[in-house]
Specification:
- By secondary structure, the chain is of the alpha/beta class.
- The chain has two domains: 17-40 and 290-396, Aspartate Aminotransferase, domain 1 (Alpha-Beta Complex), CATH 3.90.1150; 55-288, 3-Layer(aba) Sandwich (Aspartate Aminotransferase, domain 2).
- It contains 14 helices and 15 strands.
- Helix 3 (62-76) packs parallel to helix 11 and helix 4 (91-102) crosses helix 10 (256-269).
- The radius of gyration is 21 Å and the shape is globular.
Length: 397
């Protein structure tokens, strides 16, 4: 089938976080959901569920776990058992439960900034301390798309993990917002360091199905053996299939003891009971919508190429990180000399385009970076870039 990602879907006035939290006229390319309609098969399945007319408490059908099991093996070569899967109302509630399961107050949780901003709020909210293993910025290899990328500082990670108070590493895999799809050898080094030091790995793989054409996702648990036993994986159909508002996720943990600890924490938090629409949408996504996803990924890659071409032609002083996965471009505007929070605010107020400021992701000291959501019709993206280019002209004046 041919899928339409070019048609603009009006979302303003629908209680949409992305659009209705911005003033009229602002193009919002910030929060990580997509401005595309969900796959037709998902919409049809949800309509059939609505037609049943009764929306009481729901038991998780075994079929939704089985669909996830088939998807992981077919798409990523990862074999898991249905009994290793726990239900959660979202990846963030599940990560909160995992922090509570493995950490006492004043224990330390390692993250790798610049990284997803919610990590900075959920860790101290559980009484734990954040430890930063900062990614190192490096030039991209010759011939690669983009201007720069990131690598892990393994020596620093070794020092951080050796702290007896360090109990958990939250791994963003693929990495948001750096756009990295971690290689198997990188994940193995992370796993070795964490295993030797008694640090449990919580692998957030919510963007796992959104690779660019020349990259692949390596599930952390696919390392097998002790690596799978010392980790939990957090998955959802929400990012790849634009289902974030349905609030459905899964925790996959091969270690029986660790899984029961997480299960108990989910129960205490009351964040393990899902709604029937989440089961229906996720199952259909994994069972029937791979062709839609493949078409989406091609469209997102073309949007990324359009961004690179626009920046090269009209905003050459900006630099763009190489995007291996996710639909979130990381754009460096440090040369402007304007802090990212101020820059994002001025772009929203003056250029009527909204990006996320790098400061909330723990951007490097002295940097000014913006996260740009590419999951929109190309005309919307190009209009936002035109507005940004005009703003930069006025700024230089």
């Amino acid at each position: 089938m041919n899928y339409d990602f070019d048609t603009f879907v009006p979302r303003r006035g629908t209680d949409c976080m992305k659009w209705d939290s911005s003033a009229d006229g602002v193009l919002p390319l910030w929060v990580a959901d997509m401005d595309f309609r969900a796959a037709p098969a998902i919409v049809d399945a949800l309509r059939r569920r609505v037609d049943e007319g009764v929306f009481g408490y729901a038991l998780p059908p075994s079929s939704w776990h089985e669909s996830l099991v088939r998807w992981l093996e077919r798409r990523h070569g990862l074999k898991v058992g249905p009994d290793s899967i726990l239900d959660a109302t979202g990846v963030i509630p599940a990560l909160v439960a995992t922090i509570r399961a493995f950490c006492e107050p004043r224990d330390k949780v390692i993250i790798q900034p610049p990284v997803y901003n919610c990590f900075y709020s959920i860790i101290p909210a559980q009484g734990c301390d954040i430890v930063e293993n900062r990614l190192r910025r490096i030039p991209v290899p010759d011939g690669a798309e983009g201007d720069f990328t990131y690598e892990i500082d393994f020596d620093d990670l070794e020092r951080r993990a050796a702290d007896a108070k360090a109990k958990l590493l939250i791994l963003s895999n693929p990495h948001n917002p750096a756009g990295r799809a971690w290689r198997r050898d990188e994940l193995r080094r992370i796993g070795d360091i964490c295993r030797r030091n008694g640090v449990f790995v919580a692998s957030d793989e919510i963007h796992a199905d959104l690779q660019m054409p020349d990259s692949r996702h390596v599930p952390f648990a696919s390392l097998g053996g002790d690596f799978a036993q010392n980790s939990a994986t957090f998955r959802s159909a929400s990012k790849a299939f634009n289902l974030a508002g349905i609030q459905t996720a899964a925790v996959i943990c091969a270690n029986d003891v660790a899984r029961e600890k997480i299960r108990h924490a989910l129960w205490v938090n009351r964040s393990g009971e899902l709604n029937p629409f989440g089961f229906v949408a996720s199952k259909v996504a994994w069972d029937e919508c791979a062709p839609w996803l493949d078409a989406l990924r091609a469209y997102l890659h073309d949007n990324y190429l359009a961004l690179l071409a626009f920046v090269c032609d009209l905003m050459p002083a900006l630099q763009v990180a190489r995007l291996e996965a996710t639909y979130l471009a990381w754009v460096d505007a440090t040369h402007l000399g304007v802090p990212s929070t101020e820059l994002a605010c001025r772009l929203e107020n003056e250029a009527k385009v909204k990006f996320s400021p790098g400061a909330i992701y723990g951007e490097e000291k002295g940097a000014s970076v913006l996260r740009v959501n590419l999951a929109c019709p190309r005309a919307t993206l190009l209009e936002a870039l035109e507005r940004t280019a005009g703003f930069l002209v006025n700024l230089r004046k």
